[in-house]
Amino acid sequence: AQSVTQPDIHITVSEGASLELRCNYSYGATPYLFWYVQSPGQGLQLLLKYFSGDTLVQGIKGFEAEFKRSQSSFNLRKPSVHWSDAAEYFCAAQYSGGGADGLTFGKGTHLIIQP
Amino acid sequence: EAGVTQFPSHSVIEKGQTVTLRCDPISGHDNLYWYRRVMGKEIKFLLHFVKESKQDESGMPNNRFLAERTGGTYSTLKVQPAELEDSGVYFCASSQVFASEQFFGPGTRLTVL
Asked: Alpha carbon B48 to chain centroid distance?
């Protein structure tokens, strides 16, 4: 079955430190991949997306993600986190390969920022 | 431009009652999606409208859930009768035709007592 795995439920990092959130996807073909962020009281906001081409994609708020086919991974990174990055992060996949189908989400990772 | 809006933001009802959730997509977006997140679980796809037609309702949990999108604009999701396991956050999203990027609303938190 199609699935997305985010192995870390919570991650705590110090302000100014680097961040990497892990995401693995299942299924044979490479899906379209997304990272969303949800701050308290807000909807999900798209950070970045990967469809094809360059495996390192840049997003908003200084985030980037790297697609690695050999590892079925799409990890999210940021070189220096800010207190405002504290939120829940969701990795998602769209397995229809370009259609407008529903997304398959991971369980989310809560990011906690220490001062 | 207004984003996706959902009403109400919170709803607390008793088991056996009926609740209707509303979603207003971004103007001009033909695709409209409903998702649900039960506590501790991942966000799960429920169904997908293209304009007023149900494109995919494979994620609807059972026949107590009824989604409509009359006129291809706003959508409603009715739960009748509600059960305890229906508690969770219901998200709506919309996108342009043939577009993969979905824009999400803030969600409706449903609590069934």
From this structure: 9
Which one of A4, A43, A100 has the shortest CB-CB distance to B104? A43
DSSP A30: P
Q: Phi and psi (nearest 5°) for A83?
A: -55, -30
* Dihedral angle computed from the Cα positions of residues B76, A96, A37 and A64, in that order, rounded to the nearest 10 degrees: -160
Per-residue pLDDT of B68-112, as tens digits, reads 998 889 999 999 999 999 999 999 999 998 778 899 999 999 999
pLDDT of residue A97: 57
* Closest CA–CA distance from residue B16 to any residue of chain A (Å): 28
| Interval B9-59: pLDDT, tens | 999 999 999 999 999 999 999 999 999 999 889 999 999 999 999 999 999
Which of A33, A61, A30 is CA-nearest to residue A47? A61
CB pair distance less than 8 Å for A100 and B48: yes
| Strands (DSSP E) found in A1-115 | 4-5, 10-14, 19-21, 24-25, 32-38, 44-50, 56-58, 64-68, 73-78, 87-94, 104-105, 109-114
- Cα(B17)–Cα(B11) distance, rounded to whole angstroms? 12
